[in-house]
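Input:
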Amino acid sequence: MIDQSTTSRLRALRIDVDPDVAERQTAVMLSELRAAPLVSPPVPVVAPRHARRRLVATLAATFALLVPVAAFAAEDTVPGDFLYPVKQSTEWARSLVDHGVVQQHRVQEFEIVVDRGAPIAVITDRFDASVAAVDEQEFELMRRVEEARERVRERYGVDLAPIVSGARDRDSSTGDPNSGNRGTSGSGSESRSGDGTTEPTAATTTTPAAEHQTDRSGSGPDGDAGTDGTTPTTAGQPEDAPTPRSGGDRP
Amino acid sequence: MAHTVSRREIDSELVDGIRERSDTAFTTVYQLVASDLLSFAFGMLRDRGAAEDAVQQAFLELARAAPGIEGDGRSLRAWLYRSVRFSCLDEIRRRKRHPEEPTERLPDAGTSDPIDFPDPALQAALMDLSARQRAIVVLRHVLGASFDDIAEVMGSNRTAMYAACARAERSLERHLRAVESANHAASQHVKGQGTPS
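Output:
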């Protein structure tokens, strides 16, 4: 606590305005008052710089609130959506601690575009992305991809390449009779035989969507895939043709 | 002779007059608070010219913002103090950036008058405090403001201001003792030199 003598000395520091200065300052103030516009915008009872500081604090708080809200809203977005860049940013951050988040998101996006009835180009793009992301050991994710793929086949008449065909090929070469059952039964694997040749299936169509798929897989509309009656999917390609889900894309 | 003003508070009639841009209201408010504001600015800057500029700036801002002023007389007084405080902080920052640069206006002839610098040791100790501590001490002990008023000027709350004031007082006492002992040692040194051996 400050002692009494210092308090008295502090009181003595009080000064008064010089009369000449007061007169001059009053004149300047009144002159400014007359020059100022008659109607000023309403201002809060705070000094302007204080108001600026409060504005900055308000903006920072708003930003801090918006970030989690935007991240939440971006959860169910797919490429082309307004908030998809937000999802990509949060995905990158989350992938630092959870490696499975990227795979989850790719599969989820594939499901979303299928449920939305998006154009086949978008669907195949997300399918490729999900196949590239999902590890073959992620049985639950693979099952979801296969289910969504089945919905594509029913809705579009397009049979996308079975997700585990690579594994099937590998397993078949080793003679494992049970390996082909992992999450692929009844999901279009019948469109591909063990020796890599294609067989007509119930999903074989000539819809425009199928033609598009044919284009993407490297065969033109006048190519073999469109003329020999085979399924217009990547499964109908030669063994050495690049497929959208080539094993090299997998992490 | 010093210009003296009464310690009358700013009432709601005066605030209404300010909103209506009445010359009389502005002049009255100036007379009511100009000396307090000057003492505050002088305590912050230890420069009468710069302190007068800060007071002038506050009233110019008030003239521009008059129609939108809200609240009662206490709020208006705090508004003016805040404006002066921010002008002082700007000046302090400017001096830190350009320590060699002289102020734009030359000091008045009276600036060198010892009356303008009462108790130089105390003022030197005040200048050793941080700008925030200095503002609190000047508001509390030079102008006798309540902790509620100080809180309104400093943009804080009463409890925080009470604690901050206690810390500032301890720092002031410490700096004051250091300044006075340094002055005492210097005067002894001068005496020693002046004494014939």
